[in-house]
């Protein structure tokens, strides 16, 4: 079976799960979709809301909204994953607007990232996250220190006791590996 | 790209520029370096767009183990709410009917030996269109009659309250309101279906004292606690209007009796909810396990 065939079959399965929810058979299809998408939704929520509790709330709210919207899902217009991301983005926006969601930190100390403009951007960032988790440890370590800790190439070299040229080549090769993960779904960053 | 490509000959600062880790002073000088260095330009051209995306990478976090059950419980509670209108919803039933989601009848599962992906089942249109049933529109006065009855009932209740409350509060007597608590669908899902409780509230000066007894709740693990919330009738999950009444734990038999003093008037905050919470932002996060209305 080709990759395209497998994706088509997966999309059909997931569309069927949403149809079952719309028909009133809720629990098992909802659990299946939760198991497939909760991790990505939670990561997105944590990134965009900056708080574990609010991210959990966003995940719960997204699936409740999926229940309400299941009858309107049109498989011809996109995947279930994209549909859920649209729902989650809207839930996150509503939670961010709520005064009680604001963290008890001075504004200058904490700034939530902007809401991404498009569903594609969110999907891309989630795919990149998964690809980063699967990178070889040498590449992942360098990229993790850079992307998550904010260290410069020189600082990473110092921390890991590596030549700066090694850090640079691991960074570039790691980023290339991430790009190829995105390339499988048509992302064509030069 | 071959290893001796121009991007691989770029200075390490090009990676800092692309991935957003360059300090502000260096970032000020780097554009002029970029103009003179073809290798760094090649790196920026190769990785620039992806670098933007990588700067907004979500964290590598896993959802907590209990979230699946809590989410499914929330979904099922919402489904039950849509299919069963509650007594204290908005007063206009015509409006309710327009917005309430009606779950469609469940379709039979496919045969067990059928492993093929089935085509998307045709969703039947709403019954009114499906059956071609005749829609009988009541004459205008009949429709208003229902509303008039509601208005009259509300007016009568307001007049009764206006008379009764001063008599009970100002006349030296006591006003006691009762809030019976019953298990929600979410509670049933996690094995707390037999849980129940009752609260009574009496005015205490400018505040109210609640005495609440609960039975049949699980002993919570770790530092989780049960929390009591008061909600207005307009409170929804998305736009909550809640005030926390306090937290409590239960004894080994799943019971406890607690006394809480609060400024909340149970005749305005007519819904009491009990959730299980763990330390966090202080916002309601857990599924509602017990719920009740002021009688």
Description of the structure:
The complex is a heterodimer of chains A (about 190) and B (about 300). By secondary structure, chain A is mainly alpha-helical. Chain A has two domains: about 5-115, RNA polymerase sigma factor, region 2, helix turn helix motif (Rna Polymerase Sigma Factor, Chain: A, Orthogonal Bundle); about 135-190, Arc Repressor Mutant, subunit A (Orthogonal Bundle), CATH 1.10.10.10. Chain A has eight helices and no strands. In chain A, helix 5 (about 120-135) packs across helix 8 (about 165-185). The longest helix of chain A has 23 residues, at about 25-50. Chain A is globular and about 60 Å long. Chain A starts with a helix and ends in a 7-residue tail after the last helix. The model of chain A is unreliable at about 105-110 (pLDDT under 50). With about 300 residues, chain B is an alpha+beta fold. Among the domains of chain B are: about 5-55, Anti-sigma factor, zinc-finger domain (Arc Repressor Mutant, subunit A, Orthogonal Bundle), CATH 1.10.10; about 140-175; about 175-295, Superoxide dismutase, copper/zinc binding domain (Immunoglobulin-like, Sandwich), CATH 2.60.40. Chain B has helices at about 10-20, 25-35, 40-55, 65-85, 95-100, 125-130, 140-170, 185-190, and strands spanning about 175-185, 195-205, 205-215, 225-230, 240-250, 255-260, 270-275, 290-295. Chain B has an eight-stranded antiparallel beta sheet with strand order 5-4-7-8-1-2-3-6. In chain B, strand 2 and strand 3 form a beta hairpin. In chain B, helix 1 (about 10-20) packs parallel to helix 3. Mean pLDDT of chain B is about 70; it is low at about 85-150 and about 160-175. The interface between A and B is large, with 80 and 64 residues.
